[in-house]
Each structure stands twice: as structure tokens, then as C-alpha cells.
Amino acid sequence: xxxxxxxxxxxxxxxxxxxxxxxxxxxxxxxxxxxxxxxxxxxxxxxxxxxxxxxxxxxxxxxxxxxxxxxxxxxxxxxxxxxxxxxxxxxxxxxxxxxxxxxxxxxxxxxxxxxxxxxxxxxxxxxxxxxxxxxxxxxxxxxxxxxxxxxxxxxxxxxxxxxxxxxxxxxxxxxxxxxxxxxxxxxxxxxxxxxxxxxxxxxxxxxxxxxxxx
Length: 214
What we know:
The chain is mainly α. It is built from six helices and no strands. It has helices spanning 2-38, 43-71, 75-108, 116-139, 142-168, 174-206.
């Protein structure tokens, strides 16, 4: 009984770490999108948040190994630990791609009106996916987790349509084209990680991975 209570305490600590990561990840992506659209420079701030997420991800991994080694969890508890590791990784990737978005303009230049509309729409939908995937984890809502993959299909459609448009009608400014394409690519990858986070939540709830969410 004492071992079970200690394991529960450890699982709660994992949950607390993920909650902190979720808060940081959400604001990091949101800030990078806003800065790109409005012309702000928040590279250093986003880098700090991204580094914090990486640090938390390492803490989650270390805590998970400790819980497995000390308490030999089985069934539901082991499944929860595995899901926490996966969720932590995906939250840290949100930060990485957000940082990449925040550095694009300074590194390459060329930000302008071209592609602004699709970046805005993809950014809005990606943020919706992030919020939904995090809420699904916190509330253990399987249906909400499944809805994340439905939104991802729309993001993918926007992404590939925009690539086709870039080929057919590219802007004269090559730097602007590269900046735009890289930005929508990073948003598409963030959306994919939101789906992966939702998939891990479904695994935690149901005990099985959904073979193909997107």
C-alpha cells in the first residue's frame, strides 16, 4: 500500500510537470505566430521558453525512469508513464518549432504580405489544435483528442494548397518565398505534434494506440 501511495505521488509530480510545460508551450507558439504576423522580434524570449521546455522534458524522462525502477508499475500506471513521456516530448517540440519561426525573418529576411493570410489561418487552426490536445489530456477526453486529428486534415490541406500556389504564382522576392514556405512548414509540423499528443492521450485513456489519426 505504501509503495502504491508513493507511486501515485510520483505520477502526480509528472502531471504537474506536464501542466507547466503545457502553459509554456501554448504561449510560446502563440507569441511566435503573433510576432511573425505583426513584425515583432521575440527570438530571445522564445529561445528561453524553448530551453525551459527542453529542461522540463528531461525532468519528465528522469522522473519516469525513477518511477519504473523503484516501483515496477504495471498495467494502467505503466501506460500512464509511457504516455507522459510522449506528451512531454511533443510539448517540447512545440517550443522548438516556435523558436524556428521566431528566427526565420532575422535569418533569411523577406517577410511581407505574401502568404500572410495562410500563415494567419494555419496559425489560428494550429493554436486551436494545441489548446484542444492539452485540454483532452487534462480532462482525459477521448472524443476531444480524436477531434484534433480532424482539424489536422484541414491544416494539411491549407499547407499543400499553399505550396501549389507558391509554385504557380511565386513572389518576385525569393527571400520572401523561402521565409513564407518555412513558416507554414513549421506550423504544419506543430500541428502534427498536436496530433501525436492527442494520440498519446487516447493511449492513456483506452490502452491502445489509434493506428492512424491523420
